[in-house]
Amino acid sequence: RKEVEQDPGPFNVPEGATVAFNCTYSNSASQSFFWYRQDCRKEPKLLMSVYSSGNEDGRFTAQLNRASQYISLLIRDSKLSDSATYLCVVNLAYGGATNKLIFGTGTLLAVQP
Amino acid sequence: DTAVSQTPKYLVTQMGNDKSIKCEQNLGHDTMYWYKQDSKKFLKIMFSYNNKELIINETVPNRFSPKSPDKAHLNLHINSLELGDSAVYFCASSLRVERRQGAYEQYFGPGTRLTVT
User: Fold this and answer.
1) Is the pLDDT of residue A24 over 90?
2) Is the dihedral of CA A96, B91, B42, B86 positive or negative?
3) Smallest Cβ distance to B104: which of A32, A43, A44?
């Protein structure tokens, strides 16, 4: 079983649609969680951290369910510029000032005009 | 200003050669990382250094040798390059999110696309 699993997609949605991505992780010792976005031939960029209480940043809402080891990302009112690969990322702390990020394989989103 | 920079951006070389990739961060972070992203786009950690000390070494062939001269720099030297080394190599550095103890955010460089022929 992969440590972090995501539906690879692609998700093809029209502009203005709401789209949800799901992710599950296998290591219950995981301490923190993130969604990263990666555009074609670019580096991953942090989209948002995911907190236990859930958090929202504009059109983006992230949820965490520790009991089910499940993370979600909701994008409302999709824009063409949202087209990218969305990476679910789980942090395994090594202690001190370092940590190890485990990346999912990503979900490809294509927003159509 | 570039936060995490890597050189070169593209590297094309032949099997058996030795090459280096350099990384620098101006964010004042203490921890730096090397990741490899293969042709299937899977991103996997290779090494992590905290304040010049090796912390994580993930089952990487010893042809790969990271070096950190100071906490702002982490270089990667690769000996005897093989076809399977072709990938995009990303450097990253981490910021501690103070309001969530233990939650760290990593910032990535633009990547070095290595092609071994």
Assistant:
1) yes
2) negative
3) A32
Could you give the CA distance from residue A86 to residue A17 in angstroms, rounded to a whole number? 16
Query: Does any CB of chain B come closer than 8 Å to the CB of residue A60?
Result: no
Intervals of chain B under pLDDT 70: 1-2, 96-103
pLDDT for residue A19: 96
For residue B14, what are its two tokens?
Answer: 């032949």
Q: What is the DSSP string of chain B?
A: --SEEEE-SEEEE-TT--EEEEEEE-S--SEEEEEEE-TT--EEEEEEEETTEEEEE-S--TTEEEEEEETTEEEEEE-S--GGG-EEEEEEEEEE-TTSTT-EEEEE---EEEEE-
Interface of A with B in 6-35 (CB under 8 A): 31-32, 34
Amino acid code (one letter) for B78: I
A34 neighbourhood in chain B, CB within 8 Å: 105
How many residues are listed for chain B in this entry?
117
Q: For residues A88 and A99, which has the higher predicted lDDT (pLDDT)?
A: A88
Rounded CA separation B112/B36 (Å): 10
- The reply to whether A100 touches chain B by the CB within 8 Å rule is yes
Q: How far is CA B55 from CA A27, B4, B33, B63, B75, in A?
A: 20, 20, 10, 18, 15
Are the beta carbons of A62 and A55 closer than 8 angstroms? Answer: yes
